[in-house]
Amino acid sequence: MIWTLVGGIIFYQHTNMELFGTLVLATIVLAMLFLLFRMDSSRNANMPPGPTPLPIVGNLLQLSPGYSKKLKDTYGPVMTVHLGSMRAVVLVGFEAVHEALVQQADVFAGRGVSPLTMKLTGLIQSNGERWKQIRRFSLSTMRDFGMGKRSIEEWIQEEAKHLTEEFRKTKGESSSPCDPTIFLSRAVSNVICSIVFGQRFDYQDKKFINLVSLVNENLRLVASPIGFLYGTFPVFTKLIPGPFNKMLTCLNELKQFTSAMIAKHKASLVSDSPRDFIDSFLIKMKQEDKNPATEFHHDNLNITVLNLFSAGTETTSTTLRYGLLILMKYPHIQEKVQKEIDMVIGRDRAPAMEDRRKMPYTDAVLHEIQRFIDLVPLNGFHKTTKDTIFRGYTIPADTVVIPVLYSVLFDKTKWATPHSFNPGHFLDENGCFKMNSAFMPFSTGKRICAGEGLAKMELFLFFTTLLQNFSFRSTEDPANISLLPDSKSFFKRPLPYTFLAIPR
To answer: Which residues cross the membrane (predicted)?
Structure first.
């Protein structure tokens, strides 16, 4: 029988060699795929459990901040999900997020990179030596900012005065309610311009207006459902190219502006007298011009300036806008903040950062605003830098990790009333300010937002200056004010509103 079979094969080979070759090749490929599958299965045999992914979309429909808490009840605080074909580990709740990002900071310090965000951003999506060097330099320069004639605090104080003048022009008249979006975006953007470019712009400057609108439009597109679709399924940038091309157009226009500013700085640079961030970077470039592996070159300067400008404009201005809406909904909280301002600062001088330690209630309100609005619910995606054991599970290197900040900022084990706006979350029994370890609006660990210090300074100085000079009243009954975010964005923004800025 064996010889009959062999004879049949020999006959088959001679009569149809092409088909036989195809079958042999297919057998080899299938065997290789089987071995790879076995190897991958072995490597991932002890991955955290998770919901069964749907074909093509994976678990995308289940990955909302609220739904992640339901998944936690079934699979625990560490679970595996699929975003399309990409596998990711999701961390839910304070304990899991803190253990990964703080206690195992080095392992979880990678940045999960999507094809879309890598094209549109640089610093926050970088990894390895580039990220380390540029971040270290940026933090040091921002912290030790003393170049030019003013400190960062003085730049913010000056800008707060300009913002106050703009609101004062509205005269608090009910016939002309004010939309704060434009004013707040331009004010916060001017602070970044002062630090990075060494100058501020008039609020009516057409080039500046266009610049701010480009930043806002780009973030709107990136944070929209179509932006998330592009990040998960890059093929859609070709199938539905319209929004993607608009993102690239915005980015290119912003790059043209920053490139022009860099060229202007090069022409007037004095090596021992930096005026701003660009000057400091250019001096660093000169110092390392003989280092072939340096990360300090023109391309990195351009993208770093672009990132500082873009990230520093929209996040803080949105927090301010959301915060004013909350204070209008709860006028008794607004009045209590104003009483503390009057008692500590008075009406005759500008607020200063040294005042904050004497103003526990105001400080508590500002922290609660950041907790409650939950600006970036899903956080920036992280990535493991090496194979690791986490809570008994094996997580391979280069696995995308999603620490859900929403689940930390609303963790019922860490906050007395997580779903209510409650400044008491940051006050002790004596009314003194107390920090809560679950306060992570800027994330935590090695990937904590590089602009945290600047943002906190801006929030305190802008809020106290505005409330020192105005009482803010809604054009509708406070009871009817909705604090729900705009549902069209993965970046939490308040619904559009107008108000009256009534001089005090």
So the answer is: 20-37
